[in-house]
Amino acid sequence: MCDQTFLAIVFGPCDKCSKEKPLRPVYIKSEQLSYCSLCVEMMATEGLRENETLASLKSEAESLKGKLEEERAKLHDVELHQVAERVEALGQFVMKTRRTLKGHGNKVLCMDWCKDKRRIVSSSQDGKVIVWDSFTTNKEHAVTMPCTWVMACAYAPSGCAIACGGLDNKCSVYPLTFEKNENMAAKKKSVAMHTNYLSACSFTNSDMQILTASGDGTCALWDVESGQLLQSFHGHGADVLCLDLAPSETGNTFVSGGCDKKAMVWDMRSGQCIQSFETHDSDINSVRYYPSGDAFASGSDDATCRLYDLRADREVAIYSKESIIFGASSVDFSLSGRLLFAGYNDYTINVWDVLKGSRVSILFGHENRVSTLRVSPDGTAFCSGSWDHTLRIWA
Amino acid sequence: MTIGGPRGRHPRLQMPCLRKMERMIVSMQDPDMGIKMRNQRLLITVIPHAMTGNDIVEWLIQKYGISEEEALHLGNLIVKHGYIYPLRDPRSLVLRADESPYRFQTPYFWTSTKWPATELDYAIYLAKKNIRKQGDLIEHEKDNYNLLHKRINHTWDFVVMQAREQLRAAKQRRKGDRIVIDCQEQAFWLVNRPPPGAPNVLEQGPERRNCHTTRVQLNMDYYKREIEYCRKAMARTRVKSSICLEGYIKFNEQYVPHDPIMSGCLPSNPWITDDTTYWVMNAPTVTTPTKLRVERWGFNFSELIMDPLGRAQLLEFLKKEFSAENLSFWEACEELRYGEQSRIAEIVDSIYQQFLAPGATRWVNIDSKTMERTLEGIKTPHRYVMDDAQMHIYMLMKKDSYPRFLKSDLYKNLLAEAIIPPETKKRVFPFMRKQRHSSPSPALLLPAGDAEERGRSPSTAPVPEEES
């Protein structure tokens, strides 16, 4: 059978001017037409003639966004707290600091749990990255990065390596070794390269891939072994500050939040943005999926946390209080998703009832901004890191 | 949101909280609903329009319906940011919930108005102090003074002249006004030039939105993409809120008993009692799982397959049904999806040989269309080439084998034999704390060479063996 996959030069009547000329394929609104070269030229410059200025594009984008919000609102027939009225209210809530990890000489910026439910890795402003057994509070490993402000760190799923990065614009992987005389920094592998600071990183389901977010406005997926860029994600209008991988069984999406006030959901395979939400008033510092994977929460400098549902395609709850005026830097759900823990820049941690929308408790203890907060893998506790140089385990 | 200023070399203050604080301050001064201010006596001088620390805390409690602890905390932050200053002991920006007098900072000195504080202004302030105290400045102020003297030496005459003029003008004022202006200025500089050891509330992280190194251009392409995204998004199918939100209620019902923070955990939460039995009993591979764990396998297929123990039980069941190759195939596909880039061709070939080739020992039953597509795709192997086939097999296990598993004797026996650990009460005498044992690090479990092997297989949690 004749294979017509090569470009055949066709001679015939132009679809636009009807003159008999050599024709070229041209795609207009997903339809393939055949134009003569003169008409192709005219088409290409039509854009300019129609005054497609930057300003008019921007305003068209704005008005479309407004229409999109209207569409989204059409199926919004009930509020979350109304549906949650029949759920039992939470009783008295007591959580205390059970461990205090002291050892960083400067602001703690990020932390992550190991899958063994007790080890954590934490990074700080002075470049130190420490691995602790937080149950005993012993430090097990320490490495000093060649840069300051290590804003991202992550524990590998196997527990055998950690990744970190910050103002060096890179994400590096360090295998964890217990061999004496072994310098951890010697085995360091540089994986990701961005053109601005690294704000977040996370391993996917294995030690072999890392997802990163950067101040250069992009996210990227990397192969650890070779350092190869597997996929990049463009779409944010400013620095990307956070990301979280979906817990879905078919695991192929992640959400990111940025300084453009947008939270965007991406398809890891194609690099396309699947969904986008823009209801915050300021930078989004943290995003975290609801345990079922059907929603995610975000914490922002506008002092609110919000819940976005992916199937309803809209914001479904706002967690805010007039007395809370400082930004939320980090959020995470309890195992059942009933509680949302949020660390704030006013040194406190607020605990929210996700369903009813009310604040359950406020936790004091830190003496400076809470910069990072993660619930342990089995939900028995959560860890908070702060600019007061310490980490605390709460249960 | 950043506070004003042109884009350029000046770093910008990224604190939307300041605007909100200012609104709070304004409402505190509301003639009807605000704090009742009165004259405060400071030794022999009377300062008008002042309030006590107690007044501030009470007002915050009333206005926002918060506890005293929270009100004190919030009030302290307002003072630390220089919006309210103490009249007594003005060198310490701390809110005391007693009769100590405080005043509102003048908007001229608001942190957001005058940011960033210039070196020139600071020099003038220190020069004034220097003159007034005849050289007897505090340690760090003396250091700063000398530093500035060196750095902006060329303007020093101007600095000293301004200082002298301001001092002269101040002498013309009433004592009360003088004290107030001094306190205002001092509070401002405590915020903008904190003494060493004191926290710097204006410190921010690395600068955001530095347009010089960003990859983002807000150009025509960017907006064209946004427009295209909006058009696509308008057409997408959405689910009614009432249905979505019901999902949360159901999820909550199912999972709350399994949430240790909400419902506690048996025998006890290791973090609270220092007893690690809970972790030992729930280790990834344990002989007899707990009841809660086995119940959770019944929630959905994902819970079963993602738990190493659950997955092992599933394998046993599938063996009985002669469809164990499905699970092995799925695992091999996961290895492909999350594996090393360099091994892709090798893994794809291995999968083909084991599961897809005609006459393969563990041939998987995929529908002909998917099989055809997959075989075609294998010719140019890539990470996602098995996605369709993997999804097909996953759905097969989920919709077909899983419901049967839940009804099987195997599962019923697991439930029956599962343990419900007895509760361990928290120790009454806290000083007889149980010794906290360390556990072997996951990085230690295999010799160094094998650590890479371990890293390759996805979703295997490390298996720490606890000392009892």
TrEMBL record, chain A:
CDD domains found in the cross-reference section: WD40
This protein's record includes keyword Transmembrane helix: no
SUPFAM superfamilies reported for this sequence: WD40 repeat-like (SSF50978)
WD repeats: 101-133, 191-232, 233-276, 277-318, 330-362, 363-395
Pfam family, one: WD40_Gbeta
Domain of life of the organism encoding this protein: Eukaryota
Stored SMART domains: WD40
Any coiled-coil regions, as ranges: 51-81
GO biological process, alphabetically ordered: signal transduction
Protein keywords: Coiled coil, Repeat, Transducer, WD repeat
Entry-linked Gene3D superfamilies: YVTN repeat-like/Quinoprotein amine dehydrogenase (2.130.10.10)
Family: Belongs to the WD repeat G protein beta family.
Official protein name in the record: Guanine nucleotide-binding protein subunit beta-5 isoform X1
Gene name in the database record: GNB5
TrEMBL record, chain B:
Domain RGS stretches: 300-415
Lineage top rank: taxon: Eukaryota
GO cellular component: cytoplasm; neuron projection; plasma membrane
PANTHER family registered for this protein in UniProt: LP21163P (PTHR45746), REGULATOR OF G-PROTEIN SIGNALING 11 (PTHR45746:SF3)
Annotated spans, Disordered: 432-468
Signal peptide: none
Gene Ontology biological process terms from the UniProt entry: G protein-coupled receptor signaling pathway; intracellular signal transduction; negative regulation of signal transduction; regulation of G protein-coupled receptor signaling pathway
Gene (UniProt): RGS11
CDD domains documented for this protein: DEP_RGS7-like, GGL, RGS_RGS11
Protein name: Regulator of G-protein signaling 11 isoform X2
One Gene Ontology MF term: GTPase activator activity
SUPFAM superfamilies the record matches: Regulator of G-protein signaling, RGS, Transducin (heterotrimeric G protein), gamma chain, Winged helix' DNA-binding domain
Record-annotated DEP domain positions: 31-106
Gene3D superfamilies for this protein: 1.10.1240.60, Regulator of G-protein Signalling 4, domain 2, Transducin (heterotrimeric G protein), gamma chain, Winged helix-like DNA-binding domain superfamily/Winged helix DNA-binding domain
Keywords: Signal transduction inhibitor
Keyword set includes Lipid biosynthesis: no
